[in-house]
Design brief:
This protein is about 50% helix and about 5% strand. By secondary structure, it is mainly alpha-helical. It folds into two domains: about 5-45 and about 260-360; about 105-245, no CATH class. Helix 2 (about 10-15) packs across helix 3 (about 25-45), helix 3 crosses helix 8 and helix 4 packs antiparallel against helix 7 (about 250-310). Bound molecules: zinc ion (2 copies).
């Protein structure tokens, strides 16, 4: 027997147990009372638990990947302390951490390749712009840094081929005739363009060196307002490689980097999936806990309401109506959490349908629910 019957009026109890109509009560009225009592009983009896008991038990699985075996014990680190011995990456998946042989980026790998063949150009991407290397001791010329090359040029006396190269960049107007002889020179009246032109000529030359070992250099066009960084690329990756056949070393390097890229992309993608699923799992859990809590609180309030109304001598029909209204208000409180629950459940459903078994396992998401 439900608790609420203890507090109910005799009339309500009578209606609930389906006894005959009271004195002076019509059959319709009696039926209404019976239904009202049944409604009250149903509302009082529902447990409404979305949430299983074991959900309240602490998740025994460890969320963080284990720290590296060799790493020192974690401790709090002073603000001013250098980052050295304190492992800051313990929350990263293993493959992201420092001991990963694939930690080198593409630029580093290309740098090592370049250093093997032309040590002078290894730090090209970090070097100052070429015009900054022009000095008195070099005769105010830009001199190629490669030891085996004696290429150089002077912006105030361009050779024929250099003048052509500048024109080929679409910079006809900056090549002017020298005052004295037949030499052409770069016009310095726009200093920014002048310097960029020197840079472009230098990079144009360095690119020839790099192309011979299968590396392509890109640099900003002198007229470009956006100053893109100097960058290098592997020639076998280009849609139309310049030199064929390319050195075997660079072909192998390229294949290895692309393979690493593929593996790493897959790992990162999986890791994002794992994080999404963990977020969804926690969100679903949080929504369930809150929905259950709100429902339990609401049930207590309904019990109070019913008891108070019967105590005040209200008729069973009035009590049922009051209860309906309270029920509507209670449902409104749940709307937000219901939406949360639906959203997170949809993510989990999506994940179960598409994620790999290992992703589901890392996210501690059971494959079926
Ligand atoms: Zn050179
Ligand atoms: Zn040249």
């Amino acid at each position: 027997m439900s608790n609420w019957l203890h507090t109910a009026t005799p009339e309500a109890r009578r209606a609930f147990y389906g006894y005959g109509a009271c004195e002076g009560q019509g059959a319709d009225e009696h039926m209404r009372d019976f239904l009202a009592a049944a409604y009250i009983d149903a509302q009082m009896a529902s447990s409404d638990a979305l949430h299983r008991n074991e959900d309240f038990v602490r998740d025994p699985h460890q969320e963080l990947p284990p720290s590296r075996d060799a790493s020192p014990v974690r401790r709090e680190c002073e603000e001013s302390e250098p980052l050295g011995p304190v492992p800051r990456d313990a929350h990263w998946p293993r493959w992201m951490r420092e001991d990963n042989p694939r930690r080198y980026g593409r630029d580093d790998e290309i740098r090592m390749h370049v250093e093997d063949f032309m040590p002078e150009l290894g730090d090209l991407l970090d070097q100052a712009r070429p015009h900054e290397h022009m000095g008195e001791e070099l005769g105010a010329r830009w001199v190629c840094p490669v030891a085996t090359c004696d290429h150089s040029f002077c912006p105030h006396a361009l050779s024929r081929s250099h003048a052509l190269a500048v024109r080929a960049l679409g910079l006809d107007d900056i090549v002017v005739n020298g005052t004295g002889g037949s030499d052409e020179r770069l016009d310095g009246s726009n200093p920014r363009l002048f310097l960029r032109c020197i840079d472009a000529l230098a990079w144009l030359h360095l690119q020839e060196h790099l192309l011979s070992i299968g590396v392509r250099l890109t640099w900003p066009h002198p007229r470009e307002r956006y100053w893109e960084p100097v960058a290098w690329w592997l020639e076998p990756d280009q849609p139309s490689p310049r030199y064929a056949p390319l050195p075997q070393a660079v072909v192998r390097l390229c294949a290895r980097l692309n393979r690493n890229d593929e593996v790493e992309s897959r790992e990162v993608r999986d890791w994002i999936q794992v994080k999404t699923l963990r977020w969804a799992r926690r969100g679903q859990h949080r929504a369930r806990v809150n929905i259950t809590r709100l429902r339990r609180e609401a049930r207590t309030r309904r019990e109070d309401l019913v008891a108070r109304m019967f105590e005040a001598g209200e008729r069973v029909l009035t009590v049922a109506r009051g209860l309906m209204q309270r029920r509507r208000q209670d449902e409104e409180l749940l709307v937000g959490w219901r939406l949360e629950h639906a959203m997170h459940s949809a993510y989990l459903k999506e994940g179960r349908a598409h994620a790999s078994a290992s992703v589901l396992a890392s996210a501690r998401v059971p494959a079926n629910e």
